[in-house]
Structure formats: structure tokens, C-alpha cells
Write a structure and sequence with these properties.
Blueprint lengths: L15 H11 L13 H6 L12 E2 L5 E2 L2 H7 L13 H13 L11 E2 L25 E4 L11 H11 L4 E4 L2 E4 L3 H6 L7 E4 L6 E2 L10 E4 L10 E5 L2 E5 L2 H6 L8 E3 L18 E4 L9 H18 L4 H6 L4 E3 L6 E4 L2 H7 L5 E4 L12 E5 L6 E4 L2 E7 L7 E5 L3 H6 L8 E2 L19 E3 L7 E4 L5 E4 L3 H6 L11 E2 L2 H7 L1 E5 L7 E4 L7 E5 L3 E4 L3 H6 L8 E3 L6 E2 L10 E4 L2 E6 L2 E4 L5 H4 L7 E3 L17 E4 L6 E4 L4 E4 L3 H6 L8 E3 L8 E2 L10 E4 L6 E4 L2 E4 L5 H4 L8 E3 L20 E4 L6 E3 L4 E4 L2 H7 L5 E4 L7 E5 L6 E4 L7 E4 L2 E5 L3 H6 L4 E2 L2 H10 L7 E6 L7 E5 L6 E4 L17 H11 L8 E7 L21 E5 L5 H4 ...
Parallel strand pairs: 3-68, 4-7, 6-8, 9-12, 13-16, 15-17, 18-21, 22-25, 24-26, 27-30, 29-31, 32-35, 36-39, 38-40, 41-44, 45-48, 47-49, 50-54, 52-55, 53-54, 56-59, 60-63, 62-64, 65-68, 69-72, 73-76
Antiparallel strand pairs: 1-2, 4-5, 5-6, 9-10, 10-11, 13-14, 14-15, 18-19, 19-20, 22-23, 23-24, 27-28, 28-29, 32-33, 33-34, 36-37, 37-38, 41-42, 42-43, 45-46, 46-47, 50-51, 51-52, 56-57, 57-58, 60-61, 61-62, 65-66, 66-67, 69-70, 70-71, 73-74, 74-75, 77-78
Helix pairs in contact: 1-4, 28-29, 28-31, 29-31
Length: 1420
């Protein structure tokens, strides 16, 4: 028998521990009873922050202390029910843990607490080892709740203990644990029946992502299942977004019957509320059904059915249900009003249509529809049997004009389907365009006439007769088929089209006319035009047949176009002479060879049988060399055949590459057809030589520049064949101020000498040998110069910097060339590797690299060469900067280790020195560095920039332990004994021995638990400062792994300075007392008033250290309380509660709760604190103290600006200028009465000329003082002149506010409205009226009594001015139209219904409305 024990209602205003303790002891169950805590989840989550929770262990009647669930269950013989999905033994264990570690109702387990137990003596973090057991994938696991408290565990087991107490459930996947968000998630994901396994705390896991509700699944919490409106959510990207209303959820495709239900305690990060999606279609209801009711879903279903019918083109239902459709056109809440339901069918047939509550349209961007949604341009629409085409017309309403189709055949002829036309009302588009006729190339036919076929021409208004089927076939036009031709009566054809004769065959056809006896031929052209062919050659030139392809009947009249001439560029023969035709004229050739020069030899030549006018003769193409008559002068054609340029000499043509054999000799008569141009001379840059001379010249700027010697041209890459030999007749000036010499970088030799030189800016430098030539100038040609072509001697050029050489194949010494010196390497190629240079060992590869410049994997080659004296010795190169060397003195004689490879020489020397104190000072360690102190150690340098040995020094370390301070332990293995380096030892640096750097944290071997740090003292020397505790060291950001241990007698002794304690800004607690947290600041400890203050100041996630008071005796500083700007409250039971603002160490009482919002905060920001927390009182904080500020009443559209204890009405223009930056505070009339504030100055920018209300009254006639918000009169809202005044704005806003007040006073949800409806129903019952209640009448405000008095100062004042409300019936009765007011209820048969409703309204609502208008501040 499973008995459920329900807790008494004893948890109000109690801490969590008190809740569990008192409630359980009040209902102690019998043995074997299963305990279920109903509703405890919300109680646990609502523990008061800022109060004082019990922090003692659970004490029971037998004085036995229980700290675990197992203990409690054992004592009371209870058994837990793990299947309970609300809360089982987890609540008891959680409460027990809260009694141990709770601080003010806040779980302190999330704060990272560090203590000295976390760090070992060697500075490494201790890890907690786990079991090798690993549950299989797919299993649900939970940790066993231990008997001991979680504080007794450490590391991973302590964290798992916390999870066990919380009764966390995990899903095992790929070796990770994924926490289950809540038990209902298991059901939603189908994991509820999955196997569950209890595991020990020691099982290790990596954390994976939480198993949560998938994105896109709509959900609702348990408490809102019966009232889903406004409580449906959906996660998108891990963030929960709320649907503000149920109809918005429907617009997103949410099915309220298929919602996922989650527990109330499940929380997600919340994002912005979702609105109607893009392309959603909605109808704004005037009377909205109760959300979620049966009527609500019935109406939504009717709208969806009507939408489906509209999607099929049947608009009747949707038009009757929803005359106004809106659509969301983008993701920025922009809405559009559909011009007609047809827009829905055309553009939103697949959209979701929902009925939304009144006011939804105001949530659109801009407060309503941004524009009208029109039917697309080029849409086919119809009204009855008439079809129209909508075309874009930006100057017309709706940007559309409708063009009428002449008949339905025109619709088909234009490729449209009449059945797809959208039915629209004819009056929605008033603009009318031209009537649409049949498009060009449409074939029309008479009914009953087999050969009556007409072709619609290109202008769409003319037609041409198609004489027969053969002509139609030539143009691929339909003729006999009735499906492709359109029937039209003779009367319609004559009325709608103009006859333009006969149609002609397809363009390009050769046609003859039967009416012409001479047999002229025509060519059909576009637009039914025939072009008469001038001759047979004209047809041939276009590739047309020379006989007629079609003969037009004699009764056909056609239009003739221009005569068809011979095509331009055609070759024709007339009287045995060949011509080129252009523009109908024949052009003779100046020379027969022009056919070949122009590439016309393959062109056909047509016989021309009709005379043509002569044109200009065809000249040779540009670049042709010509002569005229018997003259010896030569010319070059230029300027597109219009210019001839005289040639200075035949050698000029050869220098320019002309073929003199192709010179054309033209008749002398043609010379007059050309104009003479510039003389043709040698080309710029031509290389020439006069006949019988050796000197070579280059033609530059009209003169000749000589080369220094003939072979100089070879150095410039000029082949001998490129030199042009010219006659002395072609004379030019020779430059004497310039000679062209061999360029720098050219390899030269003299005569038969084997020596090779390179030309430099200083002269000629001799290359040491062929190998140097391979390296420096691979594949460069050597120019042989005469002895007279000499240069100053510039020395011998040897190997470049970075060359690796070995002298003779028998030598093992590798040398490095640097700055013209040979450097010996201490350890051969190993030294190069220390410098980061990779070396090839294969000599053949070396030669290949230097000869062909091939680099293999970035390695350098060693070149084997003969000995030479041109490179002097430059010393010995040892290890690079940053490398360690050491002098071991007598330690070298102490022996060597058994396994030399197991330990480096330096490490061995250190071990010997530590073992034998007499040898300790024999060991001296140095680091290689540049003598000038330049940085760059440990960075590889190119071999060409390796420094000379004279530039390197060795700097001694003060002690070997300095290696640890610089983290050079990796360099110990490669350290080199100096006694093995011989002459390669670098000189000792003049700098002081290298000490440990400032900031080094160390400990001595004899005191491993005392830590010190090196700092720079006041005299710029290093001083030792000891940390008072391990926590102090950690607070300074020291990584324990970077702490070094040094020998006591290492010689590293420093003067002591002040001890280091916790760093400023560190959070700490004393010992195990976690109820009080301190902050170190300025050498003092400042206590946080509560943990909530710590969170409020953004330090909830900071690390907190647990220290002893003996080691950290800080003096007390000021208490840390809530920061300035925090709003506090002592008693939340007051109505309204008294709240204060903390400011400058004092509290200022807020005049009203509205000030909270004026401070840009909310009720959620108010902190409830204990009465013992006292602050000095400051002055009262009123709303006016925050001036300037914008305020308004929630029910009023008017916004006022409060400044200088005055109020001023803000215009819409001012608010629009401020835009989103305008912060408007909604105030309550219960706290702030704007009547009490005097009016301020007029709107900014106004002057003395701004009209007051009195001036406006004097300026305008009485009949202009009105405002009208009748929904059926949108064009008569306010008088045009009156609307330009501030008074017009006030009157219009007051009218709107009055109508809102009427709605509030008559709505059954309000107290006044409910009383009105009860009396109305009672009146109907008393008068035995059975008809439905129906009434519709309007009200407006008019002036009532005004009292004016004269003051003692002689001025006239308005003492009192009241307003009254009139109803529409009085207005109509005064004009003998009293019955019109009751026309709004045409279906009411009993005439007493509207009159009785008006009587009750006048007696019950109107007095309250008048009182509100005259007394409420929003009607100012």
C-alpha cells in the first residue's frame, strides 16, 4: 500500500531548511510509508535571498544528527520512491546539505573555493583518481548519495556528490555524461523506459551537452496547460521565445493539442517574444472570442476553410468573413493591407490565415499597415465576362491600371489562360488604359470563309490579307487550323483594324508580281515591304536565288521600299574590269595586286549587267610601299589609305623590315588622290652600322649613339644578325657625349686570358675561380673584349657570405665564409645545426646545388674546393646566443657516469657538485649572448647573417639554479663543457653575472612550504618577499607549476623586504566559516553585507580563498553593501511598499513607485533587505528631482515634460525627433497628480508670436472647433485649420481618450462595466424583453458651466470650468432625426431595445464618464 503524505501549508516565509524540517516533523509518517513532497520544487526554488537561513544540522527528537538521506530514512524506517517525478529523497538530502553550506538561501557550492590542500609541496595540483568502471552508451545513470556530507570529499568526488544530492540524471554517450534537463524531457525524447543505473561517485566522466528539449518544439509549462494563451514557448538556437498570444502560435503552425509539457521549474534563457511570421495572413477581429475556447477554435477553423476556398479562386466565403486581410511582408513586423482577397489567392495561397485580437495591427511597424498589397503587374483579372490586364502605373492609385481585352480571343492569343483569371471587384482599380488587341503575327479569320485569313501587323492596328496557304507556310503562320487562328466577324474586323493590302512571304524571299509584265524581281523585307532588285548581281551578292520563289496575285497591293543595291564589298565585273561595290557605286582598283593584298582572291566576282555610278578608286592598304609612274621615289601608305609618306632612303625600309620586292608601282594619276605625310626615317632604337665600318650605333632621338666596342652589343643581348648595315648617304649626327658600354654584372674576359671578371660600378673584379662563377653567376655568358676595352681593377671576388667550403676532399674541417673571412666551426656541421642551418652531406648534391641553384628541403651544401689565400682566417664559431656552456673545473676529474647518454654533462656536473660541497663552487655556467646585448637568442638566423665570433660573448650565471628561473631546463641537455672547446670559447662578457629575473617565485629546498618572490627594491636591487601563505601566492596569479626550488647554499641570497599577503581585490573566507565573505582592499578586509551584495557587484563567479585568521590578520575596513543606484525595501508587506535609493552612503525614500521606472529600473531590481541594515536618511527623491523627464498616464496618449517643477505638453513632432531614445515613464495617478504642477513655457523654439488657446479661439470661427473619430468618416477627423494648432491636437487626443474611457467603464471585465451589464440585463428582464441586447450610440464632450471672477489685482481669472458629455440622440433629436440612432440594430423587432439600453447607459455610465473627464489628470 503506497500512502501519499501531503505537507501542511507551513512553508510561507521560511527558509528552505525550516521548510523541510517543520513540514516533515509535522507529518511524521508511519513505517514503510513512501514520502512524496508535493509542491516542494517551487518552494525550494523560491528561497528568500537576503534573509538568514538555518545553517545547523538537522536535529531530531532523539538528538541524533543526520547529514544524509540514508541516515534519515534509517531512523524513521522510511523507504524512498525513486520513480517519483516531482521530488523524493533529493529534497531531504538537499535540505540537509543546505544546513551545512547554505548562506542566506543561496547555494555557495558554485563559488570556487581554493585552499592549501589543492597544492602539493612540489607546486603541482593534486588530481583525484577515479575507477576504471565505465557504463555503456545509452544508459541513464545517477550517482549514489553517500552517508557522509559532500564536504568530506575532494575533487571530482565532491562535485559528483553535489550532483548526487541534486539527484541529477545523465545519459551516457560516447564516454561522456549528458545531464537530463528534467524528467519530462525523457518522456518527450522517448527515453522514459531507458535502463537506469546507480553508479559510485568515483566514476570519471567528461561533461557533454545537456539533453534538452530540441529546437523548434513548442512547449508549455504544467501550470499553464489549462490556460495556454500567452504561455506557449519555442526554443530557437537554445533560447526560449514566447508566443504572446495563442493565435500567433497558430500562425507559426503550432498545434495546441500537440504541445510538449515541461515542469514549471525548468528555465531557459529567454529571448524576444515571437510575432506573426513573414507571409502570415491575419484578420483583425472586432469582437475576439475567448482565447483557447471552443468558439475560438471554431472561428479559426472557419477562416482556414475560407482561405482554402480562396486559394482555389472561390472568394465568396472569405470576402464575407474577412473583408480586410493583412499580411506580414518581412521579418521586421512590416504589415500590408491586401487590396482585395484576390491578392491572397495570387501571393499568399499557401500562407496560414489566423484571426487575431483587436490591436494586433497596431503592433506592426509604424503602428499599422505600411502600405497596400497590390496584385502583381501583368496579372490577368476578370469581372464577370470581361477580362483585364493589370499594368504598373505609379501615378495612379494602387500603382495599377487595367487594360481591357477586346475579346477572350485576345487573352488566348497573348498566351494567357482565361480560366486562371482572378475575379476582382471592378471598382478597386479605377485607372483604365488602352484596349488590348491581338498581338502582331496573329492570324484572324472570317466565320464561314475558307480563304479569308488576315495577319495582324507589327503596329497591332493594321492587318494584311494572306493570299494563300503557301504564303502562310513560308512564314510559318497557321492557315487552315481553327485552333491556331482566331475568328472575328467582318464588322468587328473593319471596326477594329485598318487594311494594309496583302501580306508578303517571309523576309528574304524573292517575289514576282503577276501585275507587272516586265518581270521585275523583289525581295521581301520586314513590315510587309518589297524591295525591287536593281540587277541580278544584287540578288547574287546577298546569296538569293535569281528566279522568283513566289508570285503575288494580280489583285494584291503592296508597299515598296528602297531599291536593293549590290551588297557593299562585292566584287563585280563590268566590261572586263573588276570593281568593288559600295553604297551602290563601283570603285576601281588602283592596282590588280590589291586583290591579293586585301585577301580577295577567293571572293566570287559577279557579272554586272546594269550601269552604276563610279566611286573613288580603292587604294593599297596601310604599310604598303608604292611608287608612282616612272619616279624612283618610294612612299608608304598610311592614314587608312589617304596619306603617302616619302621614304628617306632604301636602308630605312630594310631597317624597318619592309620587303622591297613587294613594292607596287601605281599610275601617276593616282598620286593626286593622296595627301603627303611625314618622311619615313630609321625607327627608334634601331641598331645600325655604316658600310665598311666596325662601329655599331643605336638610333635614339634622331641621332646615333656609338657602342664602345663591337662585342658590347652581345652584352646587351643584341645578336649580330639584328645589326642593319646602312649606306653613308643616310647620314645622321653622331653623339659625342655618350658611349654605350658593358652593363654592370656582365662577365667579361680579355683575349685568350682564362681569367674572368665581373663588371661592377668600381670597375672589373676578378673571380677567384670557376667555382665562384658557378655560385655567383650561374649560366651567365662571358663576353670577350679587346684589350683596349679595359676597366679599373676592382680586386678579387671570392665566395659570398654563407658559403660552406671544405679545402680538399681529404679535409674534415668545414668552413663558413662571413664578411670575406673563413670561420672554423667548433663542432663542424653540428655547430651549423645548432645555429638552425641544415647541411647536405653529399658532395655531388653540393655541386648540383651551386651549379643549378637547386635547394633540397632547405638544406645547404658544403663545397669542396682548392685552398686559397684570398680568404683570411676569421676565428672559430661556437654555439649560437642562448646556448649554455659551463666550466666544470675539478668536477671533470671526478669521473663520468656509467651511462653517458642517460644524463647530460651539465646535469652530471650539477649532481656531482650537490653531492660534494667542496666541488660546488667549481661549477660555473654561462649563456652565450651578443656582446652588444642585442636580443634574438633562440631565434634562427640565415646563414648569411651569422655573427662573427668576435661579436659573441659568454655571460656567467650567478648560480646554476638561475637556469630554472629562466625555464632553460630544455637547454641543459645541449650544454657544452668549455674545456672541450679549446680556442672556440667565447670571451667573458663585461656584464654582471646573470641573476634570476624579478617576479620569480621560488622556495628553498630546506623549507618547501615557504614561498618567496623576487621584486625590485627601492635601490633597484633584487629583494626577497615571502608569501604569508600558499593562498596569498595563488591570489597573485602564480601558477604553482612555475614555482622553482633552489639550493640553500647556491649563493642566491637576497635582502628581505615586507611579506606578501592576499592581493587587493581577492575574495576570502576565514577557515570553515563560509557565511562571511571578505574583499581585500587597501590592506584591509571589507566584509560583504550578504552574498547577494557579492552577486550584485558582479563577483558571484570570482574565486574565493579559505585562509586562516592567524596568517591574514587584516584590519577591518568599511562594510561592502549594495552599490550606489540599488533600490532597497525593508518590508514587502506594505501596500504600497516603501522603497529607497542608495546614494552616497545614504538612502533616499522614493516619493512613489513610479520613480523606480524613471530610474530605468523595474520591480524585479528592488532588493528586500533585513531591518538591521541601516543607512542614514537622505532627502526625499521625487519624480521632479529627475527632471527633465517625459511622463504620461498609461491610459492617456499625452506625454508631458517635467522640468523646473513645471509640466509642458510634448508634441508628436518632438517625440518623433527623439525616436527610440525617448524614455517615457508611465505614472500612476495614485502617486503623481499632474494637476498640482503649473504649466511650463510653450514648446521650445516658440516665441512671443505663438498663439495661445485664447488667440486661437479669437482667430477661428466656432464651427471649426470639433473633432470626429467616426470609423465611417475617415476623411473628416478634424478641421484643416484647427489641426495646425496645439489645441486641435489636444481636442483630438481627448476625444480618443474619452472613447477609451467609455470602453473601460462599459467592459464587463471592469467593476463598473460589470455593474452596467447586470443592470442592463435586469432592466430587460423587468420589461419582459426577449430580443438580444443591441445598441450603438456615440458621445462627445462639450463645455459646461464656466465661472469667471476678477482678482484683487484687477485681472480676470477662470475660477472654474467643467465639461459635460452629450449623446448622439440629443444631437439628432434637435435636428428631427431621432430615429436614425436606432438604425444600427436593424434585426431588432422590439423598438424598446435600443431606447432602454440608452437609458441604462445614460444613467449608469455617463455620470462616471463626466466625473472622470473633469477630475482625472490625464484629461488635463
Amino acid at each position: 500500500m503506497k500512502e501519499t503524505v501531503r505537507l501542511p501549508r507551513c512553508w510561507e516565509r521560511r527558509s528552505v531548511v525550516t521548510l523541510v524540517l517543520v513540514c516533515i516533523l509535522a507529518t511524521t509518517p508511519a513505517s514503510g510509508t513512501t514520502v512524496r513532497l508535493r509542491g516542494a520544487r517551487s518552494a525550494l526554488g523560491g528561497a528568500g535571498v537576503g534573509g538568514t537561513s538555518a545553517h545547523a544540522s538537522l536535529q531530531f527528537s532523539d538528538t541524533r544528527t543526520c547529514r544524509s538521506t540514508a541516515c534519515f530514512l534509517e531512523q524513521y524506517s522510511l523507504r524512498a520512491d525513486p520513480s517519483d517525478d516531482i521530488l523524493d529523497r533529493t529534497a531531504l538530502a538537499w535540505a540537509a546539505r543546505q544546513g551545512k553550506t547554505g548562506i542566506g538561501g543561496v547555494d555557495f557550492s558554485n563559488v570556487d573555493v581554493a585552499s592549501s590542500e589543492n597544492v602539493t609541496g612540489e607546486g603541482a595540483t593534486v588530481g583525484v583518481g577515479g575507477s576504471a568502471f565505465q557504463p555503456p552508451d545509452g544508459v541513464l545513470v545517477f550517482y549514489s548519495i553517500p552517508d557522509a556530507p559532500c564536504d568530506s570529499f575532494a575533487g571530482r568526488e565532491q562535485a559528483n556528490c553535489e550532483l548526487a544530492v541534486q539527484r541529477a540524471l545523465f545519459l551516457v554517450e560516447s564516454g561522456t555524461r549528458r545531464r537530463i534537463r528534467s524528467p519530462r524531457i525523457l518522456q518527450l525524447l522517448g527515453l522514459a523506459e531507458r535502463e537506469r543505473m546507480e553508479i559510485p561517485l568515483s566514476v570519471p566522466f567528461d561533461d557533454g551537452d545537456m539533453v534538452d528539449l530540441p529546437d523548434g518544439v513548442p512547449f508549455i509549462r504544467e501550470s499553464h496547460v489549462q490556460s495556454p494563451d500567452g504561455h506557449i514557448w519555442m526554443r530557437i538556437g537554445g533560447i526560449a521565445h514566447r508566443f504572446p498570444t495563442i493565435e500567433i502560435a497558430l500562425s507559426h503552425g503550432v498545434d495546441p493539442e500537440q504541445l510538449a509539457v515541461v515542469e514549471d521549474g525548468v528555465t531557459y534563457q529567454e529571448g524576444e517574444a515571437l510575432w506573426l511570421p513573414k507571409n502570415a495572413v491575419f484578420v483583425e477581429a472586432t469582437e475576439f472570442p475567448t482565447p483557447g475556447s471552443a468558439e475560438f477554435y471554431t472561428i479559426q477553423a472557419r477562416i482556414r476553410e475560407a482561405a482554402r476556398a480562396a486559394a482555389a479562386g472561390m472568394y465568396t466565403n472569405l470576402r464575407s468573413m474577412a473583408p480586410t486581410l493583412y499580411a506580414v511582408v518581412d521579418d521586421d513586423k512590416t504589415c500590408g493591407l491586401m487590396r482585395d482577397v484576390a491578392v491572397f489567392h495570387q501571393q499568399y495561397a499557401e500562407a496560414r490565415v489566423v484571426l487575431v485580437r483587436p490591436g494586433t495591427l497596431q503592433q506592426c511597424r509604424g503602428g499599422g499597415a505600411a502600405g497596400t498589397l497590390e496584385l502583381r503587374a501583368q496579372s490577368l483579372v476578370r469581372s464577370g465576362d470581361q477580362y483585364f490586364l493589370l499594368e504598373e502605373h505609379r501615378e495612379m492609385e494602387g500603382n495599377r491600371c487595367r487594360r481591357t481585352f477586346a475579346d477572350v480571343g485576345v487573352v488566348l492569343a497573348r498566351g494567357m489562360n482565361p480560366s486562371s483569371a482572378l475575379e476582382i471587384p471592378l471598382n478597386i482599380y479605377d485607372c483604365r488604359g488602352e484596349i488590348l488587341e491581338y498581338p502582331p503575327n496573329t492570324v484572324l479569320r472570317y466565320p464561314g470563309c475558307s480563304d479569308c485569313r488576315y495577319l495582324v501587323l507589327h503596329d497591332g492596328r493594321s492587318i494584311a490579307w494572306i493570299s494563300d496557304a503557301r504564303l502562310a507556310e513560308s512564314r510559318s503562320l497557321p492557315y487552315a487550323s481553327k485552333d491556331d487562328t482566331f475568328e472575328i466577324s467582318a464588322q468587328e474586323l473593319s471596326a477594329r483594324f485598318t487594311h494594309s493590302g496583302c501580306a508578303v512571304p517571309r523576309p528574304g524571299s524573292v517575289v514576282a508580281a503577276a501585275s507587272e509584265a516586265h518581270g521585275a524581281l523583289y525581295v521581301a523585307a520586314e513590315n510587309e515591304i518589297l524591295r525591287r532588285s536593281r540587277c541580278t548581281a544584287a540578288l547574287q551578292s546577298y546569296g538569293l536565288p535569281t528566279t522568283a520563289e513566289y508570285v503575288l496575285p494580280a489583285n494584291c497591293s503592296v508597299r515598296e521600299g528602297p531599291v536593293l543595291e549590290i551588297a557593299d564589298g562585292t566584287l563585280g565585273r563590268l566590261d572586263d574590269e573588276i570593281f568593288v561595290f559600295a553604297a551602290g557605286r563601283k570603285r576601281p582598283l588602283m592596282h590588280p595586286q590589291l586583290l591579293a593584298l586585301y585577301g580577295w582572291l577567293e571572293r566570287p566576282v559577279f557579272e554586272v549587267d546594269t550601269p552604276h555610278e563610279n566611286g573613288d578608286a580603292v587604294p593599297p592598304p596601310d604599310g604598303t610601299v608604292v611608287a608612282f609612274g616612272d619616279s624612283a621615289s618610294l612612299f608608304v601608305i598610311a592614314g587608312d589609305g589617304s596619306v603617302v609618306r616619302p621614304v628617306r632612303h632604301l636602308d630605312v625600309l630594310r631597317a624597318r623590315g619592309f620587303d622591297l620586292s613587294s613594292t607596287l608601282r601605281l599610275d601617276a594619276v593616282h598620286q593626286s588622290a593622296f595627301s603627303e605625310g611625314e618622311i619615313v626615317d630609321l625607327p627608334e632604337g634601331a641598331i645600325v652600322r655604316y658600310t665598311h665600318q666596325d662601329t655599331v650605333y643605336r638610333f635614339e632621338d634622331g641621332a646615333l649613339t656609338p657602342f664602345r666596342s663591337p662585342n658590347t652589343t652581345l652584352a646587351h643581348g643584341i645578336a649580330p644578325a639584328a645589326i642593319v648595315e646602312i649606306s653613308h648617304e643616310l647620314s645622321h649626327a653622331v653623339r659625342s657625349d655618350k658611349v654605350i658600354d658593358v652593363p654592370v654584372g656582365t662577365l667579361v674576359s680579355y683575349g685568350a686570358s682564362p681569367s674572368v671578371y665581373v663588371v661592377t660600378a668600381q670597375g672589373a673584379a676578378m673571380l677567384a675561380d670557376d667555382t665562384v662563377q658557378w655560385i655567383r653567376y650561374p649560366k651567365h655568358p662571358v663576353i670577350v673584349l679587346p684589350a683596349s676595352h679595359s676597366f679599373p681593377f676592382a680586386g678579387v671576388m671570392d665566395f659570398p657570405d654563407g658559403t660552406l667550403v671544405r679545402f680538399g676532399s681529404a679535409s674534415n674541417d668545414t668552413m663558413l665564409v662571413r664578411e670575406g673571412q673563413l670561420l672554423r666551426l667548433f663542432d663542424g656541421t653540428n655547430t651549423l645545426r645548432q645555429w638552425g642551418v641544415h647541411v647536405l652531406d653529399d658532395e655531388r648534391s653540393a655541386q648540383a646545388q651551386y651549379e643549378h641553384r637547386i635547394e633540397k628541403d632547405g638544406a645547404r651544401a658544403v663545397l669542396v674546393v682548392a685552398a686559397r689565400a684570398s680568404l683570411p682566417a676569421g676565428g672559430c664559431l661556437g654555439p649560437p646566443p642562448g646556448w649554455l656552456t659551463f666550466a666544470r673545473g675539478k668536477i671533470a676529474e671526478a669521473g663520468v657516469p656509467i651511462d653517458p647518454d642517460a644524463i647530460s654533462p651539465l646535469a652530471y656536473a650539477v649532481s656531482v657538485a650537490r653531492a660534494d660541497p667542496t666541488l660546488r663552487h667549481e661549477l660555473r655556467v654561462s649563456v652565450v649572448e651578443r656582446c652588444d646585448g642585442a636580443t634574438g637568442a633562440d631565434e634562427p638566423v640565415p646563414v648569411e647573417r651569422i655573427p662573427l665570433p668576435s661579436q659573441l660573448c659568454r655571460r656567467e650565471l650567478r648560480a646554476p639554479d638561475v637556469i630554472l628561473a629562466f625555464n632553460w631546463t630544455g637547454k641543459v641537455q645541449g650544454a657544452i663543457p668549455e674545456d672541450t672547446m679549446g680556442p672556440c670559447v667565447y670571451p667573458k662578457s663585461s656584464a654582471a653575472p646573470l641573476d634570476m629575473p624579478a617576479g620569480t617565485v621560488f622556495r628553498r629546498r630546506s623549507a618547501p612550504n615557504r614561498y618567496s618572490r623576487l621584486d625590485v627594491g627601492s635601490d633597484n636591487t633584487l629583494v626577497e618577499r615571502e608569501f604569508v601563505s600558499l593562498e596569498a601566492m595563488l591570489s597573485h596569479g602564480t601558477d604553482p607549476k612555475r614555482v622553482i626550488t633552489i639550493d640553500d647554499d647556491s649563493g642566491l641570497q637576497y635582502s628581505h623586504d615586507s611579506a606578501l599577503t592576499l592581493k587587493d581585490g581577492t575574495l576570502f573566507v576565514y577557515g570553515g566559516d563560509r557565511s562571511t565573505v571578505y574583499l581585500v582592499e587597501g590592506g584591509k578586509k571589507r566584509r560583504f553585507a550578504t552574498v547577494d551584495v557579492l552577486q550584485r557587484r558582479g563577483m558571484a563567479t570570482a574565486r574565493v580563498y579559505s585562509v586562516s585568521p592567524e596568517a591574514h590578520p587584516f584590519p577591518d575596513g568599511e562594510r561592502i553593501d549594495y552599490p550606489y543606484g540599488t533600490i532597497i525595501c525593508y518590508n514587502a508587506q506594505e501596500n504600497p511598499p516603501t522603497v529607497y535609493l542608495l546614494e552616497n552612503d545614504r538612502k533616499r525614500r522614493l516619493e512613489s513607485l513610479d520613480v523606480i521606472f524613471a530610474l530605468r529600473q523595474s520591480y524585479a531590481d528592488v532588493k528586500l533587505i533585513d531591518q538591521s541594515r541601516t543607512f542614514p536618511d537622505g532627502p526625499l527623491l521625487a519624480l521632479t528631482d529627475l527632471a527633465p523627464i517625459l511622463v504620461r498616464y498609461p491610459s492617456s496618449p499625452r506625454v508631458f515634460r517635467i522640468e523646473d517643477n513645471q509640466k509642458r505638453l510634448v508634441s508628436h513632432a518632438e517625440l518623433a525627433e527623439q525616436g527610440a531614445q525617448a524614455h517615457i515613464v508611465n505614472i500612476s495617478r495614485a502617486f503623481v497628480d499632474l494637476h498640482m504642477l503649473p504649466d511650463g513655457p510653450p514648446t521650445e523654439g516658440s516665441g512671443p508670436g505663438l498663439p495661445t488657446a485664447f488667440h486661437v479661439w479669437l482667430s477661428l470661427p466656432d464651427e471649426r472647433f470639433w473633432a470626429n473619430l467616426h470609423p465611417k468618416e475617415p476623411n473628416r477627423i478634424v478641421d484643416v485649420q484647427f489641426s495646425q494648432t496645439r489645441e486641435g491636437q489636444v481636442l483630438l487626443e481627448s476625444d480618443l481618450l474619452m472613447k477609451q474611457s467609455v470602453g473601460q467603464l462599459s467592459h464587463p471585465d471592469s467593476r463598473d462595466g460589470l455593474a452596467f451589464w447586470r443592470r442592463l440585463y435586469r432592466s430587460f428582464d423587468e420589461n419582459h424583453i426577449s430580443d438580444n441586447i443591441c445598441f450603438s450610440f456615440r458621445q462627445w464632450v462639450v463645455p459646461d458651466n464656466v465661472t469667471i471672477g476678477r482678482g484683487t489685482d484687477g485681472n480676470v481669472y477662470v475660477v472654474n470650468a467643467s465639461m459635460r458629455v452629450e449623446m448622439e440622440t440629443k444631437y439628432l433629436e434637435d435636428r428631427n432625426r431621432g430615429n436614425e440612432v436606432f438604425d444600427a440594430c436593424p434585426n431588432t423587432t422590439d423598438p424598446r431595445v435600443p431606447r432602454l439600453a440608452e437609458t441604462v447607459f445614460r444613467d449608469d455610465v455617463i455620470p462616471r464618464l463626466i466625473r472622470r473627464i473633469n477630475l482625472y489628470p490625464e484629461y488635463l
